[in-house]
Design goal:
mainly alpha; 5 helices; 87% helix
Length: 156
């Protein structure tokens, strides 16, 4: 009975590891994410130059794109759950909100502006939470590395 349980546990662990590796392989590269952000930034700048965006909406878009730009270098080195969330935020959520909004006419933009600003603020807050999680992850890594080094010196 115990041997069967042990084999099942090992098989589950191996399957989980394989699924995680497959997900990581399917993640987009840093360059792809940067190109998507560059394209979004260009669309926002173009809408601002055409005076279709008001200043508040323009500032919110810039803040969101700035925070997402901070996440791009970490998209390939974080744990799979964070990698997936970063990729979804950049590749799906932001374009799904900004492209239809920027395609609207001025009258339609004014009528849905409040909802668009709320969506952008929500995504910016999500990006801020991810940045906080990354900082905590790095802090823990540095603390464990410092503990390892100090224990090594104590042994000498």
């Amino acid at each position: 009975m115990k041997a069967g349980w042990w084999r099942r546990w090992l098989r589950e662990k191996r399957n989980t590891k394989r699924k995680t590796e497959e997900r990581v392989l399917l993640m987009p590269e840093e360059r792809e994410l940067a190109l998507i952000l560059q394209e979004l930034r260009g669309k926002v700048e173009q809408a601002q130059e055409e005076r279709r965006l008001d200043y508040e909406m323009y500032d919110e878009c810039r803040q969101l794109l700035f925070r997402l730009d901070l996440l791009v270098p970490y998209s390939g080195i974080m744990p799979p759950a964070l990698q997936e969330r970063i990729a979804n935020l950049i590749m799906e959520d932001t374009p799904r909100l900004l492209y239809p909004y920027l395609a609207l006419g001025e009258e339609s933009m004014r009528s849905v502006r409040r909802e668009a600003v709320a969506g952008i603020r929500f995504m910016a807050a999500e990006a801020k939470r991810i940045v906080g999680a990354i900082q905590e992850y790095e802090r823990q890594g540095l603390a464990s590395q410092a503990a390892f080094i100090s224990s090594w010196y104590k042994k000498k």
